[in-house]
Specification:
With 505 residues, the protein is of the alpha/beta class. 33% of the residues lie in helices and 17% in strands. The protein has 2 domains: 340 residues, Rossmann fold (3-Layer(aba) Sandwich); 89 residues, no CATH class. β12 and β13 form a beta hairpin. The chain is globular and about 75 Å long.
């Protein structure tokens, strides 16, 4: 194990006092480890965990913590993939030790949580088999922080606002994207990797970042991509917001809820344990044709046909017909989560509707039960990432590893200078632009079938609306897996994801 060194400021003699000495980030660490691949062979890896300094007006502004894995014995340049999560406010630990890195936290084969303490195991499905990996923690997450400078008497009068840095400055749409672009550009320069194939992979809001960066990295940073991988992405913000005056959110979530009803044996249309491939086309056809027509016409679509469609909707969802009729077919996923097992006081998870938990407040009007797919996993990932970084890799820091910062999430702002009436924020246009700029880039979009927050059908519809040429359409791949938002915690899905992604490299 060797500690990372920090070179002296160029042009200065070691030991010479100089108040303008180049800023030094905290010390990281580097070590070698072995990883046994699916072929049974041992591979030597070098892992380094350290901070890279971002700048503003050539002054140190922020420290981005990242973990870099590379295969030591590789004879030819291997691809490198930059990986990040979403939130906004999420560190990269979820993908890092959930499904992609060489080591992962243990989950039951079906993704269920094991009892504490968390256990780390070798990840046979790691992407390190076919690409080197860099896991990035955005500012305000993980160990990444804004650099705070000490103020001296009189500094406030002299301070130039354009050169000062506020941590919340990075909690903005475009500033966040700029920081990722700067990080990737500086990382490639530092490690002399401008000649290797580059890919990016992001989850959830990170999928939104992926689509945006596919264009930005080419336009602003000179980085062309071989692949852009969006995992459980939120490509268009408008589709996340339920409204009585729009239909798309209701259609997209309906498909996921209908699949969840089949999984739990609640569907009155399909039998339990029917394969998703056999039934999803029927669900999607009903959603986009019958249900969509009723939602668009609403009260104007009265009579027996309206009641027939809404009753059929209830059958798909496994809910009482009177509940669906009163809601005019617009069942929000949080109500579905509470109503599906209301008689037994169970609620299903928002991010993975196969998971259930006891509702502690069954008599209250609003949904106040803990989401079993969020409240339980923090202990697993927090314990796992701290063990990996502090004990196995040897990072020495008093900083708390921010796994999911709600301060970042609630402070997040738009900084795109759009008119107040322009409420559409999306990344699909950027993806279309990027594919036009780089016709050889592969785009991979994937979801878990039981994720009600970023439902798979949204991406299915968006891709069909991108108006791609046939040769472009061949380079955009869609595939979905059993599980929820983090479907890679399911053993079969993690293996299938690895095999599918490997085909793009």
């Amino acid at each position: 194990m060797s500690e990372l060194s920090h070179p002296e400021t160029p042009g200065k003699s070691p030991g010479k006092a100089d108040e303008k000495k180049e800023y030094q980030a905290p010390k990281g660490n580097r070590r070698e480890m072995s990883w046994r691949g699916p072929d049974g062979n041992e591979h030597r890896l070098e892992v380094s965990a350290e901070w890279l300094v971002l700048r503003k007006k050539e002054k140190p502004a922020a420290e981005i913590f990242h973990t870099y894995y590379r295969q030591v014995e590789a004879k030819s340049p291997r691809p490198i993939t930059f990986v990040f999560n979403g939130g906004p406010g999420a560190a990269s630990a979820y993908l890092h030790i959930g499904g992609i890195g060489p080591e992962r936290v243990y989950f039951e084969p079906d993704g269920k949580l094991p009892p504490p303490p968390a256990k780390m195991v070798s990840n046979l499905e790691s992407w390190i088999e076919f690409t080197d990996l860099v896991f990035i923690d955005p500012v305000g997450t993980g160990f990444s922080r804004v650099i705070e400078t000490e103020e001296k008497p009189g500094d406030k009068e002299k301070k130039d606002p354009s050169k000062t840095v506020d941590e919340k400055e990075y909690y903005q749409l475009n500033r966040d994207l700029d920081s990722f672009g700067e990080f990737i550009e500086r990382f490639l320069s530092k490690h002399k990797l401008w000649h290797v194939p580059v890919a990016i992979a992001g989850e959830s809001y990170g999928g939104f970042r992926t689509a945006k960066l596919a264009r930005r990295l080419q336009e602003k940073h000179g980085v062309g991509l071989i692949a852009a991988i969006a995992i459980s992405p939120a490509l268009e913000w408008s589709l996340l917001n339920r409204s009585d005056y729009d239909v798309l959110h209701s259609i997209d979530t309906f498909c996921t809820m209908a699949l969840a009803a089949v999984y739990h044996g609640k569907s009155r249309v399909f039998k339990m344990n029917q394969s998703i491939e056999d039934i999803r086309s029927q669900i999607e056809l009903f959603a986009s044709r019958d249900l969509a027509h009723v939602l668009v016409m609403s009260g104007a679509h009265a009579g027996q046909e309206l009641e027939k469609v809404l009753t059929r909707t209830a059958d798909f969802l496994g809910l009482p017909p009177d509940l669906v009729i009163r809601a005019h077919g617009r069942i929000p996923f949080w109500r579905f989560a509470r109503e599906l097992f209301k008689e037994s006081r169970l609620v299903v998870g928002f991010y993975d509707a196969t998971v259930t938990a006891i509702d502690p407040f069954p008599d209250r009007e609003m949904h106040e039960a803990p989401d079993p797919t969020l409240t339980g996993i923090e202990r697993i990932f927090a314990s796992g990432i701290n063990h990996l970084l502090r004990r196995e890799i040897g990072i020495e820091t008093d900083r708390i590893y921010d796994l999911l910062s709600m301060e970042v999430n609630t402070t997040w702002k738009r900084d795109d200078q759009k008119h107040a009436f322009d409420l559409n924020v999306g990344a699909t246009d950027d993806l279309r632009f990027a594919m036009s700029m780089n016709p050889s880039m592969k785009v991979l979009i994937t979801h878990g079938y039981y994720d009600m927050v970023t439902p798979y059908y949204s991406s299915e519809r968006l891709v069909e609306q991108m108006r791609l040429l046939p040769e472009q359409r061949q380079n955009i791949w869609l595939k979905h897996f059993s599980g929820g938002h983090m479907f890679y915690t399911w053993e079969k899905s993690r293996k299938a994801l690895r095999d599918w992604v490997k085909g793009a490299f």
